[in-house]
Design brief:
single chain, Rossmann fold, 2 domains
Length: about 260
């Protein structure tokens, strides 16, 4: 075993278990998944699905190729009255109990207007994009992981949202600004990057796009501070709002509002 991922939906009160292993080499190893599946479903009443995935590479990310699905592979979660389909490896905030307050705080700090164009970088399955779409003219979600974009498009359709658009895009690509020539210029850009923060190409692209506001949502104060230093010539910090998404740990989410100077 390499990883065991446990995902929970508070809306459904259901669990999804994802077992990631090296590629099975013997029949005994392959048959063990069948035995384990039967055992898990008999012992866990609210288990919605068990997924066997393989990844023979050395990696610190819990992700793999899906080999077998027992039960169902997706969970359904709800944020601010909107339904979300979450596939096995799509990013979604882990603390579902705090999600409504978290997303509401982002919207409140962003202060979107009805005539605004908004970009959402690292949009995942649309957890910020779709609630924000209710407050603006149109919003564009960008993400490098194709499965998340597929989920985001399905989630927009499920909720009958027509002003949210999603696109697979490498946000660390060189000359990032050239990727947006076919999109309207944004008034606001929302950032919710991984713990590693923003790639230098992303920072350069943001400065070139030059939106009036940047909303930076960070789960790592160290990389947040590093990135804010790069923006200080062009943007000033107006709001800093920490959110405790990881109780009883030293981890913290922080929402930052930057205004163009």
């Amino acid at each position: 075993m390499k990883n065991l991922v446990v995902r929970y939906s508070s809306f459904e009160d259901k669990l999804l278990l994802i077992l990631i292993t090296n590629t099975p080499k013997s029949d005994d190893e392959k048959n063990y998944a069948e035995y384990l599946s039967e055992k898990l479903f008999s012992e866990i009443p609210n288990l919605k699905g068990f997924i066997l995935a393989t990844n023979s590479k050395v990696s610190n990310v819990a992700i793999g190729e899906i080999e077998k699905i027992y039960g169902e592979k997706d969970l359904i979660e709800e944020i601010l009255g909107l339904k979300y389909r979450i596939s096995p490896f799509s990013f979604f905030q882990t603390n579902s109990f705090q999600l409504n307050q978290f997303i509401s705080s982002i919207i409140e700090i962003a202060e979107p207007k009805n005539d605004e164009i908004i970009y959402d970088f690292y949009c995942g399955t649309g957890s910020i994009t779709l609630p924000m779409s209710k407050k603006c003219k149109s919003i564009y979600g960008f993400e490098s992981y194709a499965h998340s974009i597929e989920d985001a498009k399905n989630n927009a359709e499920i909720n009958n949202i027509e002003n949210a658009n999603f696109q697979v895009l490498d946000l660390s690509s060189k000359n990032l600004i050239n990727e947006f020539t076919s999109f309207p210029k944004p008034d606001t850009i929302i950032l919710d990057p991984p713990r590693s923060g923003l790639h230098k190409n992303t920072v350069e692209g943001l400065i070139q796009i030059s939106p009036e506001k940047i909303i930076y949502v960070s789960c790592n104060p160290a990389t947040l501070a590093r990135d804010l230093e790069k923006f200080k010539e062009f943007y000033s910090v107006e709001v800093v709002q920490p959110i405790d998404m990881f109780p009883q740990t030293y981890h913290i989410e922080t929402i930052i509002k930057l205004n163009k100077k």
